[in-house]
Amino acid sequence: MSSESLPTRRVGVFLAVAFGVAWATAAVIYATGGLANSPVVVPGLGLTLASVLLPTAYMFAPAVGNVVARLVTGEGRSNLRVRPHPSESLRVYAAAWFAPALLTFIGAALYFAVFPGQFDPALSAYRTALETAAGGVPVDPWTLVGIQVVAALTIAPLINAVFAFGEEFGWRAYLLPKLLPLGATRAALVVGVVWGVWHWPIVAMGYNYGFGYVGAPWTGFLAMCVFTVATGVFLAWATLRTDSVWPAAIGHGAINAMAGLGTLFVLGRPHSLLGPAPVGVLAALPWVALAAWLLLRADAFAS
């Protein structure tokens, strides 16, 4: 553990803003119909109020917390961690870009190995949904799956990183370094728990897990924290290795790009607490294994 003292005031201001802005946004979404019945605000595109507020006001709340904490406490612009340092960290960037796809695939395969009756290689439910949306015109779902996979391995992590930056500029570029006096391992774990709790209002409205599971929403709260702690260790490692927010933003974007792929193969209703998306505890096990390995073996967590 570092002898440096914990900057409690800066951490407190950051958390107050990051949670305050996000949870106030969740309150607005809840008051206007929740996630399921959010009003349409852009009719031409079918965008609802929730689909607009989540990737903007909610996801950027930690970034706002970073900026406000710096202004209020007089920290200024030191150590923003916005320089990418790509030439010095190509292997970290590669891991952030491609590892989420591999781990998501392994997690989905593990889920379907446990629940083989739910695996549908014909993509029946997805095919029906596509054809309904296309007015009955036959659609090949495998073509769209292929496009999604190619995008997830190429451009999608970079595009998604624009929105993921709103979270990573707060969690990994600000809160993580502030908690390093606890030691890198404890800091990464605490940030992962905080990140999971931050999601709780929208999880309570059905985000990721819906309502058809035992102990809703409390078990969803716990499952979300398993996911955020495990993936958070990986994102913390990428940040500590590069001293930059961008590998974490790209890794976060890559996770989001692949997260829903396994659900396309589900026949019937999935056990969302378990998978096949990586937010399910069973599908998250590859992430848990990677997190444990990094905490035990990576130099970034040696302190």
From TrEMBL:
Domain CAAX prenyl protease 2/Lysostaphin resistance protein A-like: 155-258
Keywords: Hydrolase, Membrane, Protease, Transmembrane, Transmembrane helix
UniProt-listed GO biological process terms: CAAX-box protein maturation; proteolysis
Domain of life: Archaea
Transmembrane among keywords: yes
Family matches, as InterPro entries: MmRce1-like, Rce1/LyrA-like_dom
TM region(s), chain numbering: 12-33, 45-69, 90-114, 145-167, 179-198, 218-238, 245-267, 273-296
PANTHER family in the cross-refs: PROTEASE, PROTEASE-RELATED
This protein's name: Caax amino terminal protease
Source species of the chain: Halogeometricum pallidum JCM 14848
